[in-house]
Amino acid sequence: MTGMRERARAATTAEILRLAREQMAAEGASALSLRAIARDLGMVSSAIYRYFPSRDDLLTALIIESYERLGIAVEDGERSVRRRTDFAARWRAAAHALRTWAIDHSSEWALLFGTPVPGYAAPADTIAAATRYTTVLISILTDMAAAGHVHRTAVPKVLRADLDRLRSQLGTEVSDAALTVGMNAWAAVMGAVNLELFGHLHNVVNQPGALFDAVVEQHAAFITA
Amino acid sequence: MTGMRERARAATTAEILRLAREQMAAEGASALSLRAIARDLGMVSSAIYRYFPSRDDLLTALIIESYERLGIAVEDGERSVRRRTDFAARWRAAAHALRTWAIDHSSEWALLFGTPVPGYAAPADTIAAATRYTTVLISILTDMAAAGHVHRTAVPKVLRADLDRLRSQLGTEVSDAALTVGMNAWAAVMGAVNLELFGHLHNVVNQPGALFDAVVEQHAAFITA
DNA sequence: GAGTTGTCGAGAGCACTGCTCTCGTTTCTC
DNA sequence: GAGAAACGAGAGCAGTGCTCTCGACAACTC
User: Fold this and answer.
1) What's the rounded Cα separation, in Å, for the pair A224 and A85?
2) pLDDT, tens digit (0-9, with 9 covering 90-100), for A28-84
3) What's the burial of B24, exposed, middle or buried (CB within 10 Å: 0-12/13-18/19+)?
4) Cβ separation B117–A190 shorter than 8 A
5) Cα(B185)–Cα(B194) distance, rounded to whole angstroms?
6) pLDDT confidence of residue B1
7) Can you give the pLDDT at residue B182?
8) Chain center to CA of B83
9) Three state DSSP letters for A69-135
10) Which residues in A lie closer than 8 A to residue B153 (C-beta atoms)?
11) pLDDT (tens digit, 9 = 90+) per residue, A75-125?
12) Would you call B187 and A191 a contact, using CB atoms and an 8 Å cutoff?
């Protein structure tokens, strides 16, 4: 219902986002220009502001979309593992889905995990979307706990309060040790992907993904230990 | 020697870099403006181009300086450990020096390890400077090898060739296993710092540095295992 | 010492950016 | 059908990186 105006608005909003993503992939997020999008769209630059009040708002919309897509990619990767009790395999699948998405959408990855824009404070909607890809790891740990697995890593005392809060936020019954193992794995994987995508492995590791595989294997052992 | 012209040039070059760093600390690297620097310097914008042919060249100079400073900070931190055979302590000191520098110079950290500028290809001078802070970790592993320590981590086959090349580049006699352990630790630490500085731990880990400490401890155990 | 050469800062200007404001036109709502 | 709201166009502002020209001065050559 509700007329052609609303439909037209939804269509051009989607078109703006599509063109923005296209432009971002071609020239990087920092080069994203509202005026260029307007030109591609065949309208005058000021008209864009009817749809996004500022460049930051456009970026926010793109960030939310990208978090969702990353989340879906990681979920799909992890879900493809048949033997659900093979927790190491599930971890590997999730981690490799993460890296693959990052490589295939490097400008979006940079948008999510690169330098934050100085004045830009992430709105609440983005942090909700941002949790999606991490939830996959939590679900693996939760299933391990349900299967009777007990993690025995030392938990730094300072982390206790945070882990308690996290557990109640996530509504899961994962031990402090399991959460610690998970966060270590998370940090390591993110570090490896960032190093690779942001060019810090040039002349260090030429074999693409070799460092990443090593990191994933190390933490596969840790997670299932 | 050689006259006032050369001295004046060196002075204003240094002043430009100083103002650039100041401005970067205040508003982030992306907001760095040649015109603003010129204004602060009391000269017209086009005059800046006598000293740096483009904004990218200024950024390159800043990047090299920052890599050097980071390297020095990590070296100093690691050197402060008295018992040179306490390799875990040396690792902790180096890692914490890295994080401390990152926090104290967050805009410079973002410049080094954040989103690379799309068109920007790091010149050879930067990659030389970039190795400095990593060399500290290598030196710890080298000393461990000299002290008879043998690392037993599994080494991914695909990494072999890269590790061979690295070893000869570095001119050190560290085993493949030791290098693998080191690179894993490197990736994890970089990941933890990036997550913290780029705001991805908001509402996840509020205790500053708690995740970092956990990561450092885990790899301290790995390195000395 | 005189003359040439090269460096420097100033100024104007180009193409671009995000963003604001106004002004008709079109669509929706009552 | 009348009033309100949404929309696109256009002009304009302040800012950016960068280029070009021009006059002043230091540095080197003869």
Assistant:
1) 11
2) 888 899 999 999 999 999 999 999 999 999 999 999 999 999 999 999 999 999 999
3) buried
4) no
5) 14
6) 44
7) 97
8) 25
9) HHHHHHHHHHHCCCCCCCHHHHHHHHHHHHHHHHHHCHHHHHHHHCCCCCCCCCCHHHHHHHCHHHH
10) 218
11) 999 999 999 999 999 999 999 999 999 999 999 999 999 998 766 767 788
12) yes
Question: In the structure encoding, which two tokens stand for residue A127, read together?
Answer: 């942090």
H/E element holding B145?
A: helix B132-146
The pLDDT assigned to B139 comes to 97
Question: Which residue is it, tokens 């993690």?
Answer: A151
* For range A141-158, the mean pLDDT: 94
Q: Which residues contact B173 (CB under 8 A, 6 or more apart)?
A: B142, B145, B167
Q: What phi and psi values does residue A86 have, to the nearest 5 degrees?
A: -85, 80
Residue A4: the pLDDT is 83
* B8 CA: nearest nucleotide by C1': C8
Nearest CA in chain A to B29: A118
Q: Is there a contact between A28 and A110 (Cβ–Cβ < 8 Å)? A: yes
Mean pLDDT score of chain A, rounded to an integer? 94
Q: Which residues of B153-189 are buried (b: 16+ CB within 10 A; e: fewer)?
A: bebbeebeebbeebbeebebebbbbbbbbbbbbbbbb
CA B198 to C1' D20, in angstroms, rounded, equals 42
pTM > 0.90: yes
Are B198 and A114 inside 8 Å of each other by CB? yes
**Mapping DSSP to helix (H, G, I), strand (E, B) and coil, where does residue A164 land?**
helix
Q: Is pLDDT of B119 > 70?
A: no
DSSP state of B224: T
Torsion angles phi and psi, residue B115, rounded to 5: -55, 125
